[in-house]
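Lest this sound abstract, we let one protein speak, letters for residues, whole numbers for local backbone shapes, and leave readers to judge:
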Amino acid sequence: MTSTITPSTRSEAGLRSLYAGNARAVVGRGLLATRSTNWAIILTGVFEPIFYLLALGLGLGSYITGVTDAQGNVIPYAAFIAPALLAVSAMNGAIYDSTWNVFFKMHFGKLYQGMLATSLGPLDVALGEISLALLRGAAYGTTFLLVMTALGLNLSWTAILALPAILVIAFGFASLGMGITSYLKTFQQMEWVQFVMLPMFLFSATFYPLTVYPEPIQWFIQALPLWHGVELVRGLTTGALTPAMLLHLLYFLVMIAVGLVFTTRRLKALFLD
């Protein structure tokens, strides 16, 4: 008796080799490991943007009469930079978890080799690790959003939509961060992550309107993912809703899709091929 292998069975077998539908096992393992984590390191990511907000938004902001939003309304300087710092907070949580944590698991703990020796596929591992980074980014962002609410810096009811927005932002950065980290082999190379993040943090219209920069620099800034995150969150917290916000959201949806495919293929090439 012979069996016939059809293109559909080949594709199903190929899919099973990539995804076993058990990414929750990776998340569960990560949450258990978090119990022994140095919580002081995690808390620094929560308080850093709050310190920026207090020092610049409330301190320096007391000398600034106001900033014009996307609809031409003048808003307090603190309300201008707070949503930007909220987007930065989500980015930092996702990036730190999907880069440094992944780096140690990949090169020192040899964790992914063990995972992929089981029924788990590279997409399970990618989704699990990205979900963990997403949770950290969400924790950072949610904490900062509560601080903004307490300080009266959410100027519109649409600020409640900033929570799902920062989840999308964190997802986008985490999905790409893990794949990029798989190419980094040394601690010196890992410093490139901070080398990229710091200028992006400073220049993505975080503290100043985009119009203060020369036009060529404006085009460069508008290509950065953080700028799209800042504009998306700022529109939601200030109530300055524009059609361009849909483009910002689309940017991150594409970023997520590309990151998932990129990371999955990279893990497969590293540990299975």
About this structure: The first strand starts at residue 67 and ends at 68. Residues 43-271 form one domain. Strands lie at 67-68, 74-75. The chain has eleven helices and two strands.
